[in-house]
Amino acid sequence: MSGPIAIATGGTGGHVFPALAVARTLRALGHAVVLTSDARGLHWLAGENAVFELPSASPSGPLRRRLFALAALVRGALRAYRLYGELQPAAAAAFGGYASFPAALAARMRGIPLVVHEQNAVLGRANRIAARFARWLLLTFADTEGVPPSLRARSMVTGNPVRPDFLGEFSPPPAHGRLRLLVIGGSQGARRLGELVPAAVADLPEGMRRQLVLWMQVRAEQCATVAAGLAHCGLAELEVRPFFDDLARRLACADLVVARAGASTLAELLATGRPSILIPYPFAADDHQTANALRLARAGAAICLSEAELTSQRLASEMAALLGHPERREAMRQKALALARPDAALHIARILVSLLPAEASP
C-alpha cells in the first residue's frame, strides 16, 4: 500500500479553495490525502483531517524582511522534508502561493512526482520555480502569461476547481419584480468597493433603487458606515456583512455581481453563470487580477473596469445598463457558463492518481 497524496497550498482563500476541492475529490475516490499550508491557510482548513503547518513568509520588501522570509522558507522546506519522510507520499501537488513552495521543494528532494496548479492568468512567482521540476503544470487559462516555452510541453489546461456548493443546477427563487445585486470584495480590496459602490447605488435611477435587493460584503470596520449611507437610498432590501456564510446561494440568486477578480471568485462566477462587473485589485502581484478579468471580458462574460479610472458615476452607469436589460445579462450568463470547467477538481484528481504506483489504486 503506497502513501497518501500530499497537497500544499498558499494561505489565501484563492489558493486554499481549489486545493481543498481536489483533496475532497481524492478522498471521495478512496485516496488518503495530507494537506500543508502556513498559519493563514490553517484558518481555512479548520475541521479537515491530516493538516500540517509549515513555516513560510513572503520574500518581498526590504532586505531584512526578505532575509527573514528566506530563513522561514528554509525552515518550512526542512520540516516538509521530514514530514514527507515520515508519511511517504506517493504523489504531490502545489497550488501556488509562497506557503506552498517549501512542500514543493521537499517533494523534489524526496523524488515524489509533483504537479503544480496555477489559478490565475499570470504564472505566480512560487509556481514559476516549482513548475521547473514538476511533472505537469496545470493551468486555468490556456493563454496564461509568464509560462516559458520550456514548460509548454508539460502544461495542461484543467480549469480552476470550485467548492461543491457552487456546482450543480441552480434555480433561483422568484424575484417578484426585484433586482438582486451582490457585491463581494474578496480577501483583498473590499475597502475600496465599500467606498465606491454606495455612491454608485445612490446614483441609480430612483425606480431601479426601489427594486434593488443589495447584498454587500465589506470590511468589518466599514459595515456600520456603509449600511448607514445606504439606508437613505430607498432600497427594497439591504444586507451588509463582512462575510456571507451562504455565498453560493446568494451568488446563484444574483442578477448581477460586482466583485474583484481573484481566481476563485471568477471560477465561482463562471460555475454559476453570473453576469458580473469586475474591478481588479490593482495591487495584486503582477497585476494578475486584471489579466484574470480581461479573459472574461474578452469572452463577453463580464465587464472589466480599472479602479484607477473608475468613478461612482461610471459604475452606476454600467450597473444600470445591465440591471435594466435582462437580455444582456442572459447573454453574459451563457458566455460565463461556456467558460466554466465544472470537472476541474476531478480532472486534477485523476492526473494525480495517474502518478501513483499501480498498487496504490483503491
Describe, in plain words, how this protein is organized in 3D.
The structure is a single chain. This protein has 15 helices and 13 strands. The chain is α/β, with parallel strands linked by helices. The protein folds into two domains: 177 residues, Rossmann fold (3-Layer(aba) Sandwich), CATH 3.40.50; 174 residues, Rossmann fold (3-Layer(aba) Sandwich), CATH 3.40.50.2000. The strands form two sheets. It has a seven-stranded parallel sheet with strand order 3-2-1-4-5-6-7, with helices on both faces. Strands 10-9-8-11-12-13 form a six-stranded parallel sheet, sandwiched between helices. α7 crosses α13. It is elongated. The model has no long low-confidence stretch (mean pLDDT 93).
